Every structure is written in C-alpha cells, then in structure tokens.
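Hey L., structure's done. Input below.
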Amino acid sequence: MQNAPKVALLDETISFPAIEEAWEGLLAIGGDLEEARLIAAYEHGVFPWYGENDPILWWAPEERSVLFLENLHIAKSMRSVLNSHRFELRIDTAFSQVIQTCADVRSNKEGTWISQDIIDAYIRLHELGLAHSFEAWREDRLVGGLYGISIGRMFFGESMFSLESNASKFCFIQLVQWAKKNGYGPIDCQISNSHLISMGAKNIPREAYSRLLRTHLAAGKTRRGKWTIHK
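Output:
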C-alpha cells in the first residue's frame, strides 16, 4: 500500500515548499490571498486554483503552458479580423469588469474558480499596479478581455473571455505584441488548452519553467502602475 501524499499546509509564514515537492501538481493548501503571498507565489512558480467551496490550493504543475513570443501563430482568418479594425484595444481601463466577466462567463458554462475572494484579491493587485487587463471594445462596449499579473519581465496570464467571436484572441495577440515591444519574456499560460495551442503555446517541464522564470524575473524592474497601449 502506497503512503498517502504529503501536501504542505500553509500558515502565516509567507513561503512555499520547493516546487519539486508538488504531488500531481498540487504543492500546498491554505494560507491567504494577501498581496505579499500572491507575489511570493508567482515568483516561486506557483498559482492559486480552487473551487469556490474548497480551501485555497496552490499549484506547480509538472508541465507548464508557455507562449514564447516568437512562436505566436495568427491564423489567416484572424489576420483579417485584425486588419478590419473591428475591435478597439484598451489596456487597464476596466480591470474589475474584465475579471468579473471572466467569472460570469465561466460560471454560466461549467462553473468557475474565479470566486469573489479571487476577484477581490486581484483587484487589489491591480490597484497596486501589478495586475493588468487587455480589453477588446466595440462601439464602446466591452466584448472581450484577459487579465494577468506582471512581475519583473514575466506576464502570468490568468483568464480571458469573449462575448463576440475572436475578441479574446484579439486581446491575446495584443498582449504578445505589447510584450515584444517592452522587452518581456514568454507569456505564462499556466494550463494548456486547444485555444492556446492553436496560437502557439506549448508545454514545458516544470524544471525548465523554473529556470525561465528566474531569468525573466531578474531581467528588469517590475512595471508598476497602469499600462498604456504605447508602454
């Protein structure tokens, strides 16, 4: 009989076990969503992901979905969307609306991990200038968006939504182009899906991700504050 897996229980101390200790990707349970712990988590290669009625679960998957900027794939049909100027890009103008809509859209489909506690925590990070939203607007209506965290020269994508076809893809492409212009490393997409794969994301081993993370956290000072289209 195999021994039961041991998963760390977090207390008030803001630290995480070595990511190699994760059991099937789960590294730790408990703690809180305060700013200091969330920042420490991302710097350690860990992110929170749990159901609304579950304790806080912290993950460091064996494989991490990453989009290397040079590998961005834009389908011919998507190029037509970009050339049509159907959507207007805005950055950091409606963060609360973006994260709330991500939660609402997912909840209507299959349930969501974006609980009110998560929403409140990431809005606080946005107010600190660490969480950002890329937004697709059409006729002055928010129709798509994504949000994530920026530390050093890494962007950690969290979630995205579309209320119109291709709106989230538009935002993702704009994020990658912005990252290229501003000297960022790969986009951390966390968990792979067909949508991300179609745009060029791929899985890399946890150890490779950890090395990549250390490199790009040290590559430049964190850009705090609201971002703009130009910088």
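The chain has a mean pLDDT of 94. The CA atoms of residues 92 and 133 lie 5 Å apart.

-- N.
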